[in-house]
Amino acid sequence: MSATWRDDKFHDECGLFGIWNHPEAANVTYLGLYALQHRGQESAGIAATDGDNFHIEKAMGWVADVFSRERLRRLPGHRAIGHVRYSTAGSSNLRNAQPITAKTARGPIAIAHNGNLTNAEELRKGMEKGGAIFQSNSDTEVILHLLARAPAGPLEEQIPHALAQVKGAYSLLIMTREAIYAIRDPHGFRPLTLGRLDSSWVVASETCALDLLEAKPERDVEPGEIVVVSDAGLRSQRFATPGEKLQCVFEYVYFARPDSTLWGRNVHTVRKAFGHQLAREYPVAADIVIPVPDSGTSAALGYSEEAAIPYDMGLIRNHYVGRTFIEPQQGIRHFGVKVKLNPMPDMVGGKRVVVVDDSIVRGTTSRKIVRMIRSAGAREVHVRISSPPIQWPCYYGIDTPTRKELIGASHEVEEIRRYLGADSLGYLSLDGMLKATGSDPENFCHACFTGTYRVGMEPEQTPQLPLFEAQ
Length: 471
Prior knowledge:
Layout: E1 2-4, E2 11-12, E3 14-20, H1 25-35, E4 43-49, E5 54-60, H2 63-66, H3 69-73, E6 79-85, E7 100-104, E8 107-117, H4 120-129, H5 139-149, H6 155-163, E9 168-175, E10 179-184, E11 193-197, E12 200-204, H7 207-213, E13 216-220, E14 225-230, E15 233-238, E16 247-248, H8 250-255, E17 261-262, E18 265-266, H9 267-281, E19 288-291, H10 297-307, E20 315-317, E21 324-326, H11 335-338, E22 341-343, H12 345-348, E23 352-357, H13 364-375, E24 380-385, E25 398-399, H14 407-410, H15 413-420, E26 424-427, H16 430-436, E27 444-445, H17 447-450
Parallel strand pairs: 16-27, 19-23, 23-24, 24-26
Antiparallel strand pairs: 1-21, 2-25, 3-6, 3-12, 4-5, 4-6, 7-8, 8-9, 9-10, 10-14, 11-12, 11-13, 14-15, 17-18, 20-22
Helix pairs in contact: 1-7, 5-6, 9-10
């Protein structure tokens, strides 16, 4: 029989990449998306233009599976934008893949979006009553309709008019024949950075995509800013007064690649700082510190350094696990987790083990990992988590379970420890995590830990958004 394995993790909704003025724009975008694959594994797409015609290729699957040489040859032009997407199972279909393209009175347009609009359903229903027809259930199409309905004039004027009507989180790439527009919402929830590749301008969700191409990072797109890239060069304008910064702290906890520089700091360095702080808050007598790879690796190194306990690899990850596999008819214990992780008895046998991970969502995977480590001969298993208990769903561009599915929302830490079967359990405190970022703690959104939704939400009154439900 078939089965689909999903991480018991939060998942970012997407990654963005764009390039202007490069003879192999589609090929470079393909490589950029390859570096951003961790931000979305269900669909990938590229839109390219030669200044006259628009070409688009997108499909379900990973970047390397979607784009063959033949497919990339169908994307001529010197400018392109690309998108990788993660979605819930119910909305995993081609109609929601991006970039979204449309023919408008001003010519063709392509748009790619990272984030989530908290008032998308309200806007959609209003436009449908007025006769609008939607081809997808993506909130990105809502932005496209708002642009189409904006008063006539330059796109630089239409974009602020459209975005003034939306609430929530968005980093956007919009491409026309004349320019690429890189945009971040006034609160800067999601990252977006600018770079140079010789005479080309590059825009990406993370700097790791620039590193792959040996592009030079220039700066972040600022909250409330539109950066316009065209043959005339680069220009900037404000479409909104920057609000309080609400950078997603979970980018540091889990989403971003450890080799990226995010908001001025290397992600691996921040995660190690989480581990250092975690060891200070929850020390324990132990013989070895091991990570849950790869998400817990950096924090485990920090914990090991601070606690002066040897670090080693007690769990080995299979990096070649697809989303679907065939289960044997005779069940194997912890099959879903063992496909991806395997404990090493020689490392953990007879030892007091500290196992470090970045977060616990439902707790089902963590429970199986603890049992696997015990089965491999560990004398004690102490679980350490480099973030606070997750108690609330995210409405700003993250695929999350409903609140009733979050173990941290309904159970105390001691209850979770007993459920996991661990000898002890320690979560990094909210204050400790924010301090360890090395930035102003007020600059971060931490609604998934605190329920403090500071933009466009009434958490006790608002149901889980359709983005995160089966459609």
